[in-house]
Amino acid sequence: MKELLTSDDLSELDSVQVTEPQETQTYHKCNEPPGHLLSSQNGSFMAFFKRNAFVVFSVTAVALGTGLGFALRHINMSARDITYLTFPGELLMRMLQMTVLPLIISSLITGMSSVDSKVYGRIGLRAFSYYMVTTLIAVFTGIALAVIIQPGNSSRNTSVSSSGKVEAVQSVDAFLDLIRNMVPSNLVEACLRKFKTVYFRSAPIGNHLGVINITEASKNRTSIDDRVPMPGSSDGVNILGLLVFSVAFGLILGSMETQGKPLRDFFDCLNKAILHLVNIVVWYSPVGILFLLAGQILKMTDTAEIGRELTMYTLTVITGLLIHSLFTLPLIYFVVTQKNPFRFMSSLLPALTTAFGTSSSSATLPVTLRCMEENHSMDKQVTRFMLPTGATMNMDGAALYEAVAALFIAQIHNMDFNVGQIIVLRDRLRTAINVLGDCIGVGVVHHLSRHELQSSRPAEESPMEESFQLCAS
After folding, report:
1. Which of 58, 67, 285, 361 is the most exposed place for a label (fewest CB within 10 A)?
2. What digits encode the pLDDT tens for the residues 402-421?
3. CA angle, corner 53, sides to 49 and 57, nearest 5?
4. CATH topology for the 57-158+166-192+236-456 domain
5. What are the residue boundaries of the structural domains of the chain, listed by start?
6. Which residues does the annotated region (Disordered) include (predicted)?
7. What is the C-alpha to C-alpha distance for residues 213 and 215, in angstroms, rounded to an integer?
8. This prediction's pTM
9. What is the Cα–Cα distance from 196 to 174, expressed in whole angstroms?
C-alpha cells in the first residue's frame, strides 16, 4: 500500500516537473520584449506601407514636384528646357489617354449588359439628379463668393493685357453641338474629333451689275456682318458620343440573353485586359506627376505681374473650390449615407493627386476606378457607369469658377480679360474637385441603390471579383 501511495506521489511529482518547463517557457515568451516588439512593429509598418504604397508615392510626388518647380524658378529656364523637363509627364498623359478610350467603352458595355435595364434606369436617375444638384450648389457658391468678395472691384488702377482672339459662340449653337456630339455620325471619327460649329462672315451682295452700294452697306452693317454657322470639328475624343453609344449597345446586348453571350464575353475579356494594362500605367503616374507639376509651376505667371484683380479672382475661385470640396460634398455624403465622409475621402488621394497633376478628369479615370473598386469595394455596375459619365458631365469645379468668372468680368467690364494669364493651379484644383465630386456621387448612388444591386447580382458573383490588384503585386 505504501508502495502504491509512493508511486502516486512520484507520478504527481513527475507531472509537476513536466509542467514547470512549460510554465517557464511561457514566462520567457512574454518576457522577450525589445527585439520581438521591434520586429513586430517593423512588420506592421511594412504591411501598412505595402497597402498604401501608391498613396505615399503620389503624395510624395506632388510635394517633390512643387518643391522642384519653385526651386528652379530663379534659373529662368527657356520654353525648350521646360518642355524637356516635362517629358516624363507628357509620357504619363499619353499612356493615360491611350487607356481611357478602351477602358470607357469596355467598362460601360460590360456593366450595362450584365444587369437589368430597370436597375440602371433607377441608377441613372439618381446619378443625374446628383449631378444637377451638386452643379447648382457649385454655381450658387461661386455667385455668393463673387458678390461678397468683389474680386473685380478691388482696384481700378491696374490694367490687364489682352492677347489672342476670342470667338463668340451662340448659346443655341453650343447646345445644338452638344446634341450633335451625343449622336456621332462616325464612331471612328468620334475617337479623334468632336463636332463644333464654326462661323463665316457673309459677303455683301451687290446689284445685278455686281456693284456694291457702300452707303447702303454701311446702313445695313448688321446684316452684312451676320455670321453664317457651318459644320466644323475640333481635336479631341468625343467622349459624350461614345458614352451614349456604349450605354445603348450594352443595354441591347444584355437583352439578347444567350445570343449576345459571345459578344458579352469578348467585352468582359477586353475589360480585364485593359485593367491589367492600367495596373502597369498607374504605378508610373507618381513619376509623371512630379515632372508635370514642376513644369507647370515654372510656367506660372508671377502674381505681381497679373494684377490685383486676377489675383483676387484666383483666390475667390480657390476659396469656392475648398468650400465645395470640404463642406458641401462631405455634407451630402454624410446626410445620405450616415458615414464619415473624410475617411471616405482619405482613400481617394491617388485619384486626387493624379487629377491635380494631369488636369484631366478623363485621364484620371483609370486611377479613380481603382480607388473606388479596390479601396471602397464599390459595385462595378455603379462605378463603371457613373465614373465615365461623371468625367464628361459632372463638372462642379468648372461650374463654380465659370460663375465667378461671369461676375468678375461684369465687375471689370471696362477692362480686357485674358484667361491665359491666370495661375495654372486653379485649373488643376478644379479638376481635382470634379474627380472628388464623381467619387462622392458614386458613394451616394451606391448607397441608395444597394438593394437593387444586391437583388440583381448573381449569387456567385462578388462585387470585387474584377477589382484592381495593385496592392497585391
Report:
1. 67
2. 778 777 777 776 544 444 44
3. 130
4. Proton glutamate symport protein (1.10.3860)
5. 57-158+166-192+236-456
6. 454-473
7. 6
8. 0.68
9. 8
